[in-house]
């Protein structure tokens, strides 16, 4: 069996694809896996690092919403669809699994031409253009939220790395806090704006740190590798403030934390819900509003808070986040609500859909 994954471009597309690849290999170590990608995407580093084959196709960026530019897409796609077809033919692909983005659409169209079964996974609450088109050709469509508008979709969640999906935060907490130089017993706020950081979150939390420390709260702050690390002057006897450029073990960061301040990308929301970590979500103020939609269901369930980027201030952190961190019972209830909404088995459910699609073709 050979499965081709189409999810290049951003970590939000690549990570679920790689989590599915890992799950496929756990079930059958002999399965062949090829990921479609372009020369300029993160997949050029992430896919080989995880030990999977990368098949490169030309990049054809897609408009985020219907515009006059959309008319030119079919002509620009011809070459990249042909390149995708050649990869499907070379690998004798049994199934194409797409995760959206500009790599997915040529994968879907090539699979349709060749009669290869298609499985679509949509991570965001508001589907992108590629998956809207791909879902027309696929009998198997998986989504991350029960509120999805994609026709005939199954709610499975987002495939997660096993280190996250199997994380027991309470059991790992002592090791995690020691790894970051945190106090083993103090309430802990984790702050991260994603893999590149977020200047807005950085500025607000740096201004709020003294008040948090005075209230007995310690802070682990992933600043982002391209942002300047703040100067730290931890006074003796005060809770630690630990800024780091980047966290490559998010499982440990989640285990160390009692709450998180973060953006609301689909992957972030899925991971925090799966491990039961409450969060104050600050949706990215640009784009088509999907980040607010990503966070809304878990917030409605009681597993998080939601604040507009423009309303995020040091005063808001002090008035809204600090009281939660100071209340163990409320933290427990929010953690339970988040975990009840989260899905840890999305990778296995998606593997099942891949096998269903292949079996239907062969029947």
UniProtKB/TrEMBL annotation:
PANTHER family: GLYCOSYLTRANSFERASE, UDP-N-ACETYLGLUCOSAMINE--N-ACETYLMURAMYL-(PENTAPEPTIDE) PYROPHOSPHORYL-UNDECAPRENOL N-ACETYLGLUCOSAMINE TRANSFERASE 1
Matches recorded under InterPro entries: GlcNAc_MurG, Glyco_trans_28_C, GlycoTrans_28_N
Pfam families: Glyco_tran_28_C, Glyco_transf_28
Annotated pathway: Cell wall biogenesis; peptidoglycan biosynthesis
Swiss-Prot/TrEMBL keywords: Cell cycle, Cell division, Cell membrane, Cell shape, Cell wall biogenesis/degradation, Glycosyltransferase, Membrane, Peptidoglycan synthesis, Transferase
HAMAP family (UniProt xref): MurG
Catalysed reactions, semicolon-separated: di-trans,octa-cis-undecaprenyl diphospho-N-acetyl-alpha-D-muramoyl-L-alanyl-D-glutamyl-meso-2,6-diaminopimeloyl-D-alanyl-D-alanine + UDP-N-acetyl-alpha-D-glucosamine = di-trans,octa-cis-undecaprenyl diphospho-[N-acetyl-alpha-D-glucosaminyl-(1->4)]-N-acetyl-alpha-D-muramoyl-L-alanyl-D-glutamyl-meso-2,6-diaminopimeloyl-D-alanyl-D-alanine + UDP + H(+)
Annotated membrane topology: Peripheral membrane protein
Location of this chain's protein in the cell: Cell membrane
Domain called Glycosyl transferase family 28 C-terminal: residue spans: 188-349
Family, per entry: Belongs to the glycosyltransferase 28 family. MurG subfamily.
Domain Glycosyltransferase family 28 N-terminal, residue spans: 3-142
Domain of life: Bacteria
Binding site for UDP-N-acetyl-alpha-D-glucosamine: 10-12, 124, 161, 195, 291
CDD domains attached to this UniProt entry: GT28_MurG
Function: Cell wall formation. Catalyzes the transfer of a GlcNAc subunit on undecaprenyl-pyrophosphoryl-MurNAc-pentapeptide (lipid intermediate I) to form undecaprenyl-pyrophosphoryl-MurNAc-(pentapeptide)GlcNAc (lipid intermediate II).
One function term, GO molecular function aspect: undecaprenyldiphospho-muramoylpentapeptide beta-N-acetylglucosaminyltransferase activity
Protein name: UDP-N-acetylglucosamine--N-acetylmuramyl-(pentapeptide) pyrophosphoryl-undecaprenol N-acetylglucosamine transferase
EC numbers on record: 2.4.1.227
Cellular component terms per the entry's GO annotation: plasma membrane
């Amino acid at each position: 069996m050979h499965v081709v994954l189409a999810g290049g471009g951003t970590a939000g597309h690549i990570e679920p694809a790689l989590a599915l690849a890992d799950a496929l290999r756990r079930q059958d170590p002999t399965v062949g896996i090829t990921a479609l990608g372009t020369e300029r995407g993160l997949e050029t580093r992430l896919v080989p690092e995880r030990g999977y084959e990368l098949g490169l196709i030309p990049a054809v960026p897609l408009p985020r919403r219907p515009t006059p530019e959309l008319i030119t897409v079919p002509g620009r796609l011809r070459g990249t669809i042909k390149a995708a077809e050649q990869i499907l033919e070379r690998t004798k692909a049994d199934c194409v699994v797409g995760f959206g983005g500009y790599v997915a659409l040529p994968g879907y169209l090539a699979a349709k031409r060749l009669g290869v079964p298609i499985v679509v996974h949509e991570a965001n609450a508001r589907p992108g253009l590629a998956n809207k088109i791909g879902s027309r050709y696929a009998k198997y469509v998986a989504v991350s939220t029960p509120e999805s508008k994609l026709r005939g979709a199954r709610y499975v969640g987002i495939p997660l790395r096993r280190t996250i999906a199997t994380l027991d935060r309470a059991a790992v907490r002592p090791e995690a806090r020691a790894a970051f130089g945190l106090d083993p017993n103090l309430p802990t706020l984790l702050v991260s704006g994603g893999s590149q950081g977020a200047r807005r979150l950085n500025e607000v939390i740096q201004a709020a740190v003294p008040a948090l420390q005075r209230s007995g709260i310690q802070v682990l702050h992933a600043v982002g590798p391209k942002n300047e690390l703040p100067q730290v002057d931890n006074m003796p006897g005060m809770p630690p403030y630990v800024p780091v450029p980047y966290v490559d073990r998010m499982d440990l960061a989640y285990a160390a934390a009692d709450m998180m301040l973060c953006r609301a990308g689909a992957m972030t929301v899925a991971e925090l819900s799966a491990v039961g970590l409450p969060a104050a979500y600050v949706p990215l103020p640009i784009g088509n509003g999907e980040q607010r939609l990503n966070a809304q269901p878990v917030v409605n369930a009681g597993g998080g808070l939601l604040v507009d980027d423009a309303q995020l201030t040091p005063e808001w952190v002090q008035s809204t986040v600090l009281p939660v961190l100071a209340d163990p019972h409320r933290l427990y209830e929010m953690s339970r609500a988040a975990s009840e909404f989260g899905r840890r088995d999305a990778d296995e459910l998606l593997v099942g859909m891949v096998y269903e699609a292949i079996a239907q073709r062969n029947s």
